[in-house]
């Protein structure tokens, strides 16, 4: 019998995921299992167990943090044919900009009746001296990770979320980061080629084009090509950096002098000072000076739903 599982993060999108699930669940016309996550990292174990117990499809209801955990969990299972999809219910939802997802109950009912097919995509891996992480969309160091760290631990965000103004917290921390973020020196080892960069704001490794809720940071990234794209922003004034962010939405930033891009299968990044890391927008610890963080791609590691065009 087909086994479909929903994993719902009730806190994603300030309750948006939970509300979407509440609207969809009563209209589902097939048998399924569903679980709520009770806190950070819980979706990893849930997804791994569901895949090991024969799930054909695991659907995450939440944002990119939730999907990050579900993809990791499925990658750790011994069920290589388990497919991951989503009902976007977070604030960013970059997973759903590139991988097929569901938004209505009738789509789910139809798909269950007709059957679904999977298509493997590449999984990003980050290995440091102290940890191992995966990434589905992107990972990186610097300014954006600093913002992710401060927003997520901030009590201001929780307070503003309660009155529906959670996005203001991001604006607050973007301004704070513009004023206070300490720039760093970065050594890049891209497939054996060494380059050095001064006054770096951020270095992002992309498995797919989108980042930070719709910014097209790496327009040429393809999650099925076995490669990762590196985007570095350096040597630009604090206020001109805002222009870079403006142009990223259109994917036009890659022509700017302050933006450097590389393609590789393996990238080592070494900073001269401590800076912040993220994987799929979730804070992932801090770098140690002069210790290399190694980013790589595991080709075709996990299955998403087949895209319409293929
Ligand atoms: N029950 C829970 N309570 C609190 N946090 C949870 C719970 N379940 C999962 N989480 C955590 O919530 C975080 C955010 O999830 P997700 O990214 O899906 O939502 P989001 O609203 O898009 O958040 P973001 O603002 O980071 O984009 C994840 O790191 C996840 O580990």
From TrEMBL:
Residues 1-130 form the DAGKc domain. It comes from the Bacteria. Keywords: ATP-binding, Kinase, Lipid biosynthesis, Lipid metabolism, Nucleotide-binding, Phospholipid biosynthesis, Phospholipid metabolism, Transferase. InterPro entries: ATP-NAD_kinase_N (IPR017438), Diacylglycerol/lipid_kinase (IPR005218), Diacylglycerol_kinase_cat_dom (IPR001206), Lipid_Phosphate_FormReg (IPR050187), NAD/diacylglycerol_kinase_sf (IPR016064), YegS/DAGK_C (IPR045540). GO terms for biological process: phospholipid biosynthetic process. GO terms for molecular function: ATP binding; kinase activity. Gene3D superfamilies: 2.60.200.40, Probable inorganic polyphosphate/atp-NAD kinase, domain 1. Its cofactor is Mg(2+). Belongs to the diacylglycerol/lipid kinase family. This is Diacylglycerol kinase family lipid kinase.
């Amino acid at each position: 019998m087909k086994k479909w599982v929903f994993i719902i993060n009730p806190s994603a999108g300030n309750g948006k995921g939970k509300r979407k699930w509440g609207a969809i669940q009563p209209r589902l016309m097939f048998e399924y299992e569903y679980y709520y996550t009770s806190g950070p990292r819980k979706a990893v174990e849930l997804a791994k167990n569901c895949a090991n117990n024969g799930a054909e499809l695991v659907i995450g209801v939440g944002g990119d943090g939730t999907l990050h955990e579900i993809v990791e969990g499925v990658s750790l299972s011994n069920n290589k044919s388990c497919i991951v999809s989503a009902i976007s219910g977070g604030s960013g939802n970059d997973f759903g900009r590139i991988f097929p997802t569901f938004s209505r109950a009738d789509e789910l009912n139809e798909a269950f009746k007709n059957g679904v097919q999977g298509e493997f995509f590449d999984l990003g891996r980050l290995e440091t001296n102290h940890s191992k992480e995966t990434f589905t969309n992107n990972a990186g160091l610097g300014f954006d990770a600093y913002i992710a760290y401060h927003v997520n631990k901030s009590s201001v965000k929780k307070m503003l979320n309660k009155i529906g103004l959670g996005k203001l917290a991001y604006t607050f921390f973007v301004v704070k980061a513009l004023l206070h973020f300490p720039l760093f020196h970065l050594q890049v080892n891209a497939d054996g080629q060494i380059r050095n960069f001064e006054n770096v704001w951020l270095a992002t490794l992309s498995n797919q084009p989108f980042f930070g809720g719709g910014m097209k940071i790496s327009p040429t990234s393809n999650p099925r090509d076995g490669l990762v794209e590196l985007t570095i922003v350096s040597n630009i004034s604090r206020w001109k950096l805002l222009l870079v962010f403006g142009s990223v939405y259109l994917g036009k930033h890659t022509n700017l002098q302050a933006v450097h891009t590389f393609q590789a299968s393996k990238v080592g990044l070494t900073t001269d000072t401590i800076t912040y890391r993220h994987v799929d927008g979730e804070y992932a610890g801090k770098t140690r000076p002069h210790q290399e963080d190694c980013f790589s791609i595991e080709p075709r590691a996990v299955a998403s739903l087949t895209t319409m065009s293929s």
